[in-house]
């Protein structure tokens, strides 16, 4: 793979420029989907608006994207920003989110997630098995995300489906339909691959039926009791989610 020449990571940025802030805004407000990971630092993304297009992002020194914005200016585009902010959960003003590229040690730190606040580990519940041999859906936690759009499942009000034969984890039905289009599965009896565990997720027919009826389904966020305030941490102790009586 050819990487275009560009400024090296040694040219350190210390501040968030207006241009980069705008690209970050675009990344956070766009509907972007992670179709495939190509090794630890390569990502295939799909954007559906204004037209359906796929983009390849590679993190390194420098970062690279094949979109016109990056190729024109060799600056961080919204696709690179999306990977840094959504996939790796970097704060917008984190030093790693400002640079045109990252050194090998910095890439390793990013992959290890040393910048993220660690939640207390919870013991995994024993998964229930249905009569047909499929797995029951795992309970959705406050920090669980859709691995395709990287949105928190209990914050974005979209119906979810789950991996029936591998891990039992949930993703948005719409996102799984987009992934099915990418996997180019045509037979309705064919099995889709889970984006998390890579095992069999569900037959295409199940996803198509769920997608068709998704307007009638209840989103995971709407199933949460009103004594949990989702998406808003406490300003003092940073507790998330905030629990207590919800006044509307």
Key attributes of the depicted protein:
248 residues; 26% helix; four-stranded antiparallel beta sheet; 8 helices; alpha+beta
Please tell me about this protein's structure.
This protein has 248 residues and is an alpha+beta fold. Helix content is 26%, strand content 15%. It contains eight helices and ten strands. The strands form four sheets. Strands 1-2-3-4 form a four-stranded antiparallel β-sheet. The chain has a two-stranded antiparallel ribbon with strand order 5-6. A two-stranded antiparallel sheet has the order 7-8. The relative contact order is 0.11.
Give a concise summary.
With 248 residues, the protein is of the alpha+beta class.
């Amino acid at each position: 793979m050819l990487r275009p020449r560009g400024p090296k990571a040694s040219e350190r940025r210390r501040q968030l420029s207006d241009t980069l802030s705008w690209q970050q805004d675009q990344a956070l407000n766009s509907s972007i989907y992670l179709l495939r990971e190509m090794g630890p630092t390569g990502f295939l993304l799909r954007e559906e608006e204004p037209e359906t297009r796929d983009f390849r992002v590679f993190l390194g020194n420098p970062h690279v994207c094949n979109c016109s914005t990056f190729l024109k200016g060799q600056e961080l585009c919204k696709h690179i920003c999306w990977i840094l902010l959504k996939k790796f959960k970097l704060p917008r003003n984190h030093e790693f989110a400002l640079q045109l590229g990252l050194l090998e040690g910095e890439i390793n730190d990013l992959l290890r997630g040393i910048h993220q606040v660690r939640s207390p580990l919870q013991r995994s519940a024993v998964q229930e098995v249905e009569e047909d041999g499929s797995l029951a859906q795992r309970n959705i936690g406050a920090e669980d995300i859709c691995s395709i759009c990287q949105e928190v499942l209990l914050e974005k009000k979209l119906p979810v489906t789950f991996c029936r034969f591998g891990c039992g984890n949930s993703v948005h039905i719409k996102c799984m339909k987009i992934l099915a289009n990418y996997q180019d599965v045509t037979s309705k009896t064919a099995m889709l691959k889970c984006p998390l565990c890579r095992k069999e997720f569900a037959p295409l027919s199940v996803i198509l039926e769920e997608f068709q009826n998704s307007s009638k389904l209840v989103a995971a966020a709407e199933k949460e009791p009103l004594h949990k305030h989702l998406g808003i941490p406490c300003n003092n102790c940073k507790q998330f989610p905030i629990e207590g009586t919800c006044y509307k």
